[in-house]
Amino acid sequence: MNIGPLHLENPVMLAPLAGITNLPFRLLAKEAGCGLVCSEMVSADGLVHGSPNAVDLLRSLPAEKPLAVQLFGSDPAVMAEAAAIVEGSGANLLDINFGCAVQKVIKTGSGAALMRTPQRAEALLRAVRHAVRIPLTIKIRSGWDGSGRQALALGEIAEACGVNAVTVHPRTASQKFSGRADWEVIAALKRHLSIPVIGNGDIACADDAVRMLSQTGCDAVMVGRQAIGYPRIFTEIGLRLHGKAVPADTIANRLKVLRRYTQLTVECFGRKTATRLIRRRLGWFVKGMRNGAVLRSAAGQITCMDQAYELIEAFGREN
Q1: Annotation says 100 is catalytic
Q2: Residue 248 in 3-state DSSP?
Q3: How many CB atoms lie within 10 A of CB 63?
Q4: Nearest-angstrom CA–CA distance, 234 and 230
Q5: What is the mean pLDDT of the chain?
Q6: What's the pLDDT tens digit per position in 217-240?
Q7: What is the CB neighbour count within 10 angstroms for residue 35?
Q8: Are residues 172 and 142 in contact, defined by beta-carbon separation less than 8 angstroms?
């Protein structure tokens, strides 16, 4: 599929996930067959003021391309300046967050709060569109009630401002991640807009992705929480989209991914930082596996990468 001039090999994308979709995770998703990976949510204010944490989130490698970077903020001028920084960093696509419902984001007028202020949303989109030439997308929710009217209105504004695609997670801001995603909102938005619509929400397996595409008519699917610790879902969706059977996952596959993620974390951040990150992240990849709880507990106590490697090998021997 295409988003503006950007061609994607397949219509399957990784959602931006704060604290999760860092460079090693994105590389893992790309290796599993993801068509477009996305950064963690980046503060526009942080970028403009040179915050090391914000700037570090723009780190990238050619192997993960094409790469989308997601910005959040509420000031049109600041967002435009930050967008130019993102484009200058080599990102292939810029996404703007209109869906985050975390209180510390909402209270600044950013994220889902922008769905309540269409005039500000329009000013922001026009400023950003004028500032960059790379494809521009937005990620939204249904709105502040379940009707989906705010999603349709914002989608219409986005299209008029030159946005190249809209991703919709059809839960209300108050739902956050609870309840069911209303896929009919995705279908309604697709019927309402001429630009591509990307569906997100409640994709728990490859068949869900295929069903969303068929049921809503959306142009692509975006996978978020289900990819945490299980990037193989991108491989499985690719197989199902080509009408192929999905072979059962194996312990050997899980261990291969666990080793690869650990290796990538060391390569990207060095052994000291990798040790800190791996303590909290090894457990992602063993959810539902025998002795998984034991590994999660032990991982939290490691003090060096040699211990992490030994823990992984011991887990393999026990399974």
Answers
A1: yes
A2: coil
A3: 11
A4: 9
A5: 94
A6: 999 999 999 999 899 999 999 999
A7: 21
A8: yes
Main-chain dihedrals φ then ψ at residue 212, nearest 5 degrees = -60, -45
State phi, psi for 18 to the nearest 5 degrees. Answer: -60, 130
* Amino acid letter, 262: T
Point out the catalytic residue in the list 34, 100, 161, 268.
100
List phi, psi (to 5°) of 51: -60, 125
Tokens of 5: 């001039």
∠ CA(44), CA(46), CA(48), 5° rounding?
Answer: 70
Which is it for strands 67-72 and 6-7: parallel, antiparallel or unpaired?
A: unpaired
Q: How many CA atoms lie within 13 A of 223 on its CB side?
A: 34
Closest CA to 295 of 284, 306, 311, 280: 311
What confidence tens digit (pLDDT) does each residue in 160-193 have?
Answer: 999 999 999 999 877 666 678 899 999 999 999 9
> What is the β-pairing status of strands 6-7 and 2-3?
antiparallel
DSSP string, 202-224: ---SHHHHHHHHHHH--SEEEE-
Q: How much is the pTM?
A: 0.95
CB burial of residue 146 (10 Å; 0-12, 13-18, 19+): middle
